[in-house]
Design a protein that fits this description.
Elements (H helix, E strand, L loop, with lengths): L11 H13 L3 H7 L1 H14 L5 E5 L5 H5 L4 E6 L2 H10 L4 E4 L5 H6 L4 E7 L8 H8 L3 E12 L4 H9 L14 H10 L2 E9 L9 H8 L4 H4 L4 E8 L8 E8 L3 H10 L6 E8 L6 H11 L4 E6 L5 H11 L4 E4 L11 H9 L5 E5 L12 H18 L11 E4 H9 L12 H10 L4 E5 L14 H19 L3
Parallel strand pairs: 1-2, 1-4, 2-3, 4-5, 8-9, 8-11, 9-10, 12-14
Antiparallel strand pairs: 5-7, 6-7, 11-13, 12-13
Helix pairs in contact: 2-3, 12-13, 16-19, 17-18
Length: 482
């Protein structure tokens, strides 16, 4: 048996874990084949969470099957079982495998970062000191790194113990059975914050196809989901953001002539370099000419005017974003029902790295009397509940026009935009679904919602409601039943 320094030195628990792994190393792949459906489903979901082509560090990489399945641009695995790591090196020579205890500071110091992803697949509970290890790990992570922790639901402990006794599951020893709250608390103590969580696999066997049907269509329902065997936590380290100095405020405007001048006058200057991009949508009330007049009247401000190529707010947003040059890109509705004075708060959340995607919510503070019609109110509330369930993160207002993120994240969202197969006429769901797909840290910013002072609403309750239903169904298929 190769000499591996365990951490902490002299730990009987670590010695017992390593001894078991060395003994079971030659049988590891056989256990995986024996429970093929469970492992296939686990890897399928992890591939959904983790895009290909990233730099990935796996803590406790075993025989390397998961790391290889994720198809990293650079993959590094740390494993303290010599038997398992020998097999991994033979099977996957294009990946890097380091023999040693990941908690040993000398081993971690050998690993050259930064990494985009760190994954613990049933190994987080094997650490002796999760908090200290996570704190040390931060030095090897990129500013946009995601830590993915896959672990068993602690409610399944009796059943999994029984499975070990019956020879249906590979034995474990010395594992900490951590609840979701335990994992989140340890992350917070070490300077990380949770981005999102999910649960999968109510039935960890195929059972002639029954398991697949249950796991696709029933296991994702709110109450049943809590009983699933697999828990997934995605977190990010709280690290300083690279310097953010500029912002682009995208303002779609159609038939908003009376709002243009007040909007520019009221919008504060809150970054070193700030541009306003009006995207005019074929108005019938001289909005285009009014923006031209306002540009001439404000030579000290950077203001652009575009004529959108297509129709709909979503098209306008995409046209404005393609032109934007700011580090941060922000959307502000031209109707001024959300006050332009709130935009510095949006910028500050992103510049301070407290959030990576900001979504305004109009349902925290009281609204003005005529700000939203009753049916619109019901529809907004209903779709917010649906999308909160679909995305496993709380949204109280999916259709608020105030949204912001980095230009880099916007570009990444646009690259993957076609996966939902439904055109978004609003632009809101491109951002919401894309931010969830990229596991961006989301913050909901309460804004005061006022009554429109000029013009008429562009929203059609029934036609646009149908679009929303289509978006919800597309998101359901892509996020819950894939």
């Amino acid at each position: 048996m190769s000499a591996v320094k365990l951490w902490p030195p002299g730990s009987q628990r670590k010695a017992a874990i390593r001894e078991l792994f060395e003994r079971l190393g030659p049988e590891r792949d056989r256990w995986i084949r024996r429970n093929a459906y469970y492992y296939e489903e686990d890897r399928r979901f992890l591939r959904f969470l983790i895009p290909e082509g990233l730099s990935i560090l796996e803590i406790g990489s075993g025989t390397g099957q998961l790391l290889a399945a994720l198809r990293p641009q650079r993959g590094v695995g740390i494993e303290f079982s010599a038997t398992m790591i020998d097999g991994a090196r033979r099977a996957y020579p294009h990946l890097e495998f380091v023999l040693g205890d990941a908690e040993d500071p000398d081993i971690l110091a050998q690993i050259e970062g930064p990494f985009d992803i760190v994954i613990f697949d049933d190994t987080f509970g094997l650490l002796d000191d999760c908090q200290t290890f996570l704190a040390c790990l931060k030095k090897r992570l990129s500013a946009n790194c995601r830590v993915v922790i896959a672990h068993h639901n602690h409610l399944w402990e009796p059943g999994l113990r029984l499975g070990e006794m019956l020879g249906l599951k590979m034995p474990q020893v010395g594992n900490s059975w951590l609840s979701d709250h335990d994992v989140q608390n340890l992350l917070q103590l070490a300077g990380y914050e949770m981005v999102q969580g999910d649960r999968r696999q109510l039935v960890p066997y195929r059972v002639g196809g029954i398991g697949t049907i249950v796991n696709r269509y029933l296991a994702t329902l709110p109450l049943l989901q809590r009983l699933c065997v697999r828990n997934y936590v995605v977190a990010r380290p709280v690290l300083p953001n690279p310097a953010i100095r500029s912002a682009s405020v995208i303002i779609p405007c159609r038939n908003e002539r009376g709002n243009i001048a007040p909007l520019v006058r009221r919008l504060p200057v809150f970054s070193e370099n700030q541009e306003i991009i009006f995207v005019e949508g074929h108005s019938s009330d001289d909005t285009y000419e009014e923006v031209e007049r306002v540009i001439r009247a404000n030579p000290g401000r950077s203001i652009q005017l575009l004529r959108q190529p297509g129709i709909g707010k979503g098209d306008a947003v995409r046209a404005g974003m393609a032109t934007a040059t700011g580090d941060i890109v922000m959307i502000l509705d031209a109707d001024m029902t959300v006050a332009p004075e709130d935009m510095p708060k949006v910028f500050d959340l992103l510049a301070s790295n407290r959030a990576e995607f900001v979504n305004g919510t109009r349902f925290i503070y009281p609204m003005e009397g005529g700000a939203m019609r009753f049916l619109n109110l019901l529809g907004n509330r209903g779709f917010s509940l649906i999308f909160s369930w679909l995305l496993n993160r709380r949204f109280t207002d999916t259709l608020c026009g105030t949204k912001a993120l980095s230009k880099r994240h916007w570009d990444a969202i646009m690259q993957a935009r076609g996966q939902f197969k439904v055109d978004d006429p609003f632009g809101d769901f491109d951002l919401i679904l894309g931010a969830a797909r990229l596991t961006l840290k989301t913050a909901e910013l309460p804004v005061r919602y006022g009554e429109r002072r000029y013009g008429e609403t562009q929203i059609s309750r029934f036609r646009h409601g149908w679009y929303l239903l289509r978006m919800a169904f597309a998101a359901y298929r892509r996020l819950k039943t894939f």
